[in-house]
Specification:
binds calcium ion, binds uridine-diphosphate-N-acetylglucosamine, 7-stranded mixed sheet, elongated, 35 strands, 2 domains
Length: 519
Amino acid sequence: MPQPHLRTVVVLAAGEGKRMKSTLPKVLHPLLGRTLLGHVLSAAAPLAADRTVVVVGHGADQVRGHLSEVAPDATPVLQAEQLGTGHAVRIALDAVPEGAGTVVVINGDVPLLRPETVGALVTAHEEAAAAATVLAAEVPDPTGLGRIVRDAGGRLEQIVEERDADATQRAIREINAGIYAFDAVRLRDALGKLSTDNDQGEEYLTDVFGLLRSAGEPVAVHVADDHVETLGCNDRVELAALRRLLRDRVNEAWMRTGVSLLDPATTWIDVTVALDRDAVVDQNTQLRGATVVGAGALVGPDVTLIDTVVGPAASVVRSHAVGAEVGAGATVGPYAYLRPAARLAEKAKVGTFVEVKNTQIGAGSKVPHLTYVGDATIGEHTNIGAASVFVNYDGVNKHHTVIGSHARTGADNMFVAPVEVGDGAYTAAGSVIVDDVPAGAMGVARARQRNIEGWVVKRRAGTAAAEAAQRASDAKGAQRVGDAKGASVAPGTASDSEAIHGVTETVGGASGPGDTATE
Ligand code: UD1
Ligand code: CA
């Protein structure tokens, strides 16, 4: 069975977008997860067109490069000189085999256009067997746009550009959205007859409507339900306005699926992001790219997640993450930076002022404070002491560190990679670990402390410090007299308690030498 309607989509994207004042072609400006062009292509995607042609001109190489990433099936066609929208469509059709069917033309700068609206336009056009159908909208301010001029019977007579319009036509608030469906054969024919007899000396695609109408062909207007969808983008002020409108649309859709947004006005979610039910997004949060937030997870306030997967019931607070994975029930922040391939397993913790890159942190393991972890594998239920650095870079190459499971590393450790700390091992505070620490061992690598008794009283006489030292020494003398009456010394050897202290210092806990759990 032959396909009833061969469909060709033509996107017009050759213009410079002068008023953007940018080295980036207008259609490549980003808007919540896609470029303007990307939004238009995705609105057209459900048409399942047999071919898609994108007319490129200004910044052609950049636009072609972008297309090869986001729409490799689309055919870029070069319009070397921008001689008008009619000229652009003529060039596009010259590049595809002649044939019947429907040609859908979309300006490249209408990013809020929804697939449903393009679909309704095309269906109406095909069902009416019209020669051409234009998407129109009634707008509060039609300045700069083409006006829909209807006859006494309400039928489309012509589309007139503002600069070619008379005063009566300018008063019309029904505008051409720049989105059309055409019968392919009649469009080709009319494009051959376009003149450049207008204020800009260009071939106007819009003149096709007047030409077809004069030839007695059926032309139609399809009015958009919501004029916001037809808003174009000509400068950065309009781009910002479109971004706010799209934000509201995206946010509303997520709230309706069961996601809580505590402050939608400061929550910016790319159209490419996915959130599960009962996720809670707190204020000042940006979710970008391929980010996914699991059920019941809490993200925010003040969080940016780019291409990051957050598992169910995890929490990420005041943090920045790029290309990271946060496991179920894991916690991140406040003030953490997760870089690409930072992977936190279930219930792992990355705390405050911690940066993690290319590292697997095992289930239940914690990196709570002031630490850099790069290029490492950390086992399960391990605790990394505060203010540690995984020294992964020798100035030329990056090296890997392995920390086992149930390990307890001391505060202020340097792990000079490549190095390995075994399962259940401990390391002392202030250690520079350059050699492997076997499973169950205590690694100590630091100079022994020396106290020079009485130094301040002797060498800083007359200072407040010396006076305080003197008072303390006097009080100690008095205490010693009391103790001499029969106190005993606590058990444990001096070297053990020193090393263990190295570990317990990180945690500020006082419950015993073996307790290194944080908080
Ligand atoms: C066009 C319509 C106008 C409509 C408005 C909606 C015409 C003559 N006018 O006006 O009725 O209200 O869109 O936004 O069509 N382009 C090319 N090659 C060219 C010229 C333009 O590819 O030679 C592309 C531009 O990159 C842009 C689109 O076509 O994506 C529209 O061009 P633009 O110059 O913005 O047309 P408008 O003056 O806005
Ligand atoms: Ca425009």
